[in-house]
C-alpha cells in the first residue's frame, strides 16, 4: 500500500493540546503512526517522503452548516440565490471543489436548493470522479406550505411543503430513500427574511414528533433551523441532532440543551451574521432590517455561546456560506469569529472545527484527529494556526491538502525522496 511520510512536522492533533514535533506516516487512507522525531522510522523503498521543515500538520477542517448549492463563492459572485437547474448542478460541484481547496475535507449539509444534487454529488466524489469534501448530504430544506408553490408532484417525488404528520413522515422517508443522510427543517422562521419571523413556530408538536419518529425509523439525522426558544425545545424533544442558531434560547432551553449535550451539536452560523453586518450593498438593496436583526443576533450569541460551552454543549463553526455577501470558500472565517466574538483561543476553535467536526460527521472515533488509526484527512499549513487562526483563510498557506489518504494538493516542493517500486 502507498505510504506517505510527513517528516519534521509540528502536529496539531485536534485535541487542543499544544503543537508537538513529529513524523506522521499515512498508509492507504489511514494515519498509521505519529512518532517523535527521535523515534522516527527510516524511509522504506516506495515511500513518498516530505521534508516539511516544521510546518504545521493538522486534521482537515469540517464545515457544520454547508450550503454547496448556494450560488456565490470566492471564485464567482452570483447576485441572488436561484440558478437554472443545469447551472445549479455545475455550481454545486464547483463549490464542493472550492471548499476542499480551502481546507474543508468534510461538510455537513444544512440543506440544498435541489432535491437530489447533493446525493448525486456524494456519489461522484466517493467514486473519485470529482474533487470535494466528505459530505453528509441533505435535500431541500423543509418549510411549511407557501402559496406560490402549487406545482403537481411527479410520482415518487417528495413534497417539501405539505402539512400534517403524514406529510412530514412521507418527506423524511422520501429523503432517506433518495440517499440523503440529514433532513433539515425550518422549525422557526427567520427575522432576516421577514421581521418577527424568528419567534414564529412553523410546525406543530405533532408534526415535529412525526419527523423524529420517521427519522429514527428511516435511519437519517435531523437538523433544525431554530431561532425561537420554543423551536429549540421542539427540536430537543423530538430527537433533532443538529441545531442551528438557537439565538433566542431561554433558561429552559439552555437546561434542555445541556441535558442533551451528548446527542446534539449546535452551530450558531456566526459567519452570515458578521457578513450581514459587514455588507456594503448597492443603494437599491435595502439591508437595514437585516443589519438590525444581525446586530441583535450577534449580541445575543456572544452571551449564549460561551454559556453553552460552559455547560459542555458541542459548538461548531459553520456559517451559512453561499450568499452573495458571504461566499462559499470563506468558511474558515468562522474560526476567527469564534476567537473574536465567543472568547475561544485559536486552539479551541481548531478543536471545534476538527475533533468536534469528526463527531458531527458521525465518525468521531476515526475522523478529526491526528492519531494512529484515524482517517488521513490532513492539512499542511505554512504558519501556525494555533497562534493566528485567520491564516487558514488564505488558501496559499495550505501547502498540502489530503483527503482519505489522497492528495488534493501535493506539496511537491517538499518531496525529499520518492521511490516508485
Ligand atoms: Zn443555512
List strands and helices in order, with pairings.
Blueprint lengths: L2 E9 L8 E8 L2 E6 L12 E4 L4 E4 L1 E6 L18 H17 L2 E6 L7 H10 L7 E3 L28 H14 L3 E5 L18 H14 L2 E6 L2 H9 L4 E4 L5 H9 L5 E3 L2 H9 L9 H23 L22 H10 L3 H15 L17 E4 L16 E6 L2 E4 L5 E4 L3
Parallel strand pairs: 1-4, 1-5, 6-7, 7-8, 9-10, 10-11, 11-12
Antiparallel strand pairs: 1-2, 2-3, 4-16, 5-13, 13-14, 14-15
Helix pairs in contact: 3-4, 5-6, 7-8, 9-10
This protein binds zinc ion.
Description:
The protein has ten helices and 16 strands. The protein has helices spanning about 85-100, 115-125, 165-180, 205-220, 230-235, 250-260, 270-280, 290-310, 335-340, 345-360; strands at about 5-10, 20-25, 30-35, 50, 55-60, 60-65, 105-110, 135, 180-185, 220-225, 240-245, 265, 380, 400-405, 405-410, 415-420. Helix 7 (about 270-280) runs antiparallel to helix 8 and helix 9 (about 335-340) packs across helix 10 (about 345-360). The mean pLDDT is about 95. Zinc ion (ZN) binds near residues 65, 67, 110 and 320. Zinc ion (ZN) binds near residues 67 and 110.
Amino acid at each position: 500500500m502507498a505510504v506517505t511520510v510527513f517528516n519534521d512536522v509540528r502536529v496539531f492533533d485536534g485535541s487542543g493540546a499544544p503543537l508537538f514535533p513529529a513524523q506522521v506516516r499515512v498508509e492507504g487512507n489511514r494515519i498509521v503512526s505519529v512518532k517523535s522525531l527521535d523515534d522516527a522510522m527510516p524511509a522504506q523503498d516506495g515511500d513518498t517522503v516530505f521534508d516539511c521543515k516544521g510546518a504545521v500538520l493538522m486534521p482537515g477542517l469540517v464545515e457544520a452548516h454547508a450550503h454547496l448549492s448556494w450560488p456565490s463563492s470566492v471564485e464567482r459572485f452570483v447576485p441572488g440565490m436561484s440558478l437554472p437547474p443545469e447551472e445549479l448542478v455545475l455550481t454545486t460541484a464547483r463549490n464542493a471543489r472550492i471548499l476542499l481547496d480551502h481546507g474543508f475535507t468534510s461538510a455537513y449539509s444544512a440543506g440544498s436548493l435541489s432535491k437530489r444534487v447533493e446525493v448525486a454529488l456524494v456519489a461522484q466524489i466517493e467514486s473519485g470522479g470529482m474533487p470535494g469534501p466528505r459530505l453528509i448530504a441533505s435535500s431541500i430544506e423543509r418549510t411549511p406550505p407557501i402559496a406560490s408553490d402549487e406545482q403537481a408532484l411527479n410520482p415518487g417525488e417528495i413534497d417539501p411543503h405539505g402539512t400534517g404528520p403524514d406529510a412530514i413522515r412521507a418527506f423524511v422517508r422520501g429523503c432517506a430513500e433518495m440517499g440523503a443522510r440529514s433532513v433539515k427543517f425550518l422549525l422557526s422562521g427567520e427575522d432576516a427574511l421577514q421581521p418577527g419571523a424568528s419567534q414564529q413556530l412553523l410546525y406543530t408538536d405533532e408534526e415535529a414528533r412525526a419527523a423524529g419518529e420517521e427519522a429514527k425509523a428511516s435511519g437519517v439525522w435531523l437538523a433544525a433551523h431554530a431561532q425561537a426558544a420554543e423551536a429549540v425545545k421542539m427540536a430537543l424533544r423530538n430527537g433533532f441532532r443538529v441545531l442551528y442558531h438557537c439565538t433566542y434560547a431561554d433558561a429552559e432551553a439552555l437546561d434542555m440543551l445541556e441535558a442533551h449535550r451528548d446527542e446534539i451539536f449546535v452551530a450558531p452560523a456566526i459567519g452570515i451574521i458578521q457578513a450581514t453586518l459587514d455588507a456594503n450593498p448597492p443603494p437599491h438593496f435595502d439591508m437595514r432590517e437585516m443589519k438590525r436583526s444581525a446586530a441583535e443576533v450577534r449580541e445575543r450569541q456572544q452571551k449564549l455561546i460561551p454559556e453553552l460551552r460552559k455547560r459542555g454543549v458541542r459548538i461548531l463553526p459553520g456559517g451559512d456560506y453561499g450568499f452573495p455577501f458571504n461566499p462559499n470558500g470563506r468558511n474558515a472565517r468562522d474560526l476567527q469569529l469564534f476567537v473574536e466574538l465567543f472568547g475561544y483561543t485559536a486552539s479551541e476553535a481548531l478543536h471545534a472545527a476538527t475533533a468536534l467536526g469528526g463527531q458531527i460527521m458521525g465518525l468521531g472515533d476515526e475522523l478529526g484527529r491526528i492519531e494512529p488509526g484515524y482517517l488521513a484527512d490532513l492539512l499542511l499549513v505554512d504558519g501556525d494556526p494555533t497562534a493566528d487562526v485567520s491564516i487558514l483563510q488564505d488558501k496559499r498557506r495550505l501547502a498540502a491538502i489530503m483527503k482519505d489518504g489522497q492528495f488534493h494538493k501535493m506539496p511537491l516542493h517538499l518531496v525529499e525522496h520518492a521511490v516508485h517500486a
